[in-house]
Design brief:
InterPro entries: MUG/TDG, Uracil-DNA_glycosylase-like, Uracil-DNA_glycosylase-like_sf. By secondary structure, the chain is α/β, with parallel strands linked by helices. It contains 6 helices and 5 strands.
Length: about 180
């Protein structure tokens, strides 16, 4: 893995990272926003402590553990990745409430256009902020975008110590089973 200096990471601030999307996906995973490592590499969930890729594999969404640089392979499994807010920051708390709301509006438009069967937002706090649903919990939501159902997953960041990789994988697997049945 490439090592970046602090200056190189800071230079990635505010960079945009292209979505990994296609029409009619089974599940479109949605992060909060790109971190600086993701922006520096151009690969989603690239920070070494982020558990997205291991949990995706443990939950059965992928047949092997993918590296962030292999993110385009997700499309062959009917999966994709986007973000609530496109702008890269060092921490999610650098985003404003308005950025979350505008990100939610743009995400709803994107989902309506791409028509995935499921939108999976990784991070209940981000989902609450983007869609003004302060009581949302991890799991399936009542909200839909056209025909797209919504599921909120735990945030795979290494900072989210409340969830282990194993308990996260169980929740991701619940979504996988629902997606396979829809």
């Amino acid at each position: 893995m490439t090592r970046f200096t602090q200056a190189e990471l800071e230079a990635a601030r505010d960079r945009l990272v292209p979505d990994v999307v296609a029409d009619g996906l089974s599940v479109l995973f949605c992060g909060i926003n790109p971190g600086l490592m993701t922006a520096a590499t151009g690969h989603h969930f690239a920070r070494p402590g982020n558990r997205f890729w291991p949990v995706l594999h443990l939950s059965g969404f992928t047949p092997r553990l993918l590296r962030p640089a292999e993110q385009e392979e997700l499309l062959s499994y009917g999966l994709g990745i986007t973000n609530v807010v496109a702008r890269a920051t060092a921490r999610a708390d650098e985003l404003s409430a308005e950025e979350y709301r505008e990100g939610g509006r743009l995400l709803a438009e994107k989902v309506t256009r791409l028509r995935p069967r499921w939108l999976a937002v990784v991070g209940v706090t981000a989902y609450r902020a983007a869609f003004g649903d302060r009581r949302a919990q991890v799991g399936p939501q009542e909200r839909v975008f056209g025909e797209t159902r919504v599921w909120v997953l735990p945030n795979p960041s290494g900072l989210n110590a409340h969830w282990t990789a194993a308990t996260m994988a169980e929740e991701f697997a619940r979504l996988r089973v629902a997606a396979e049945g829809s």
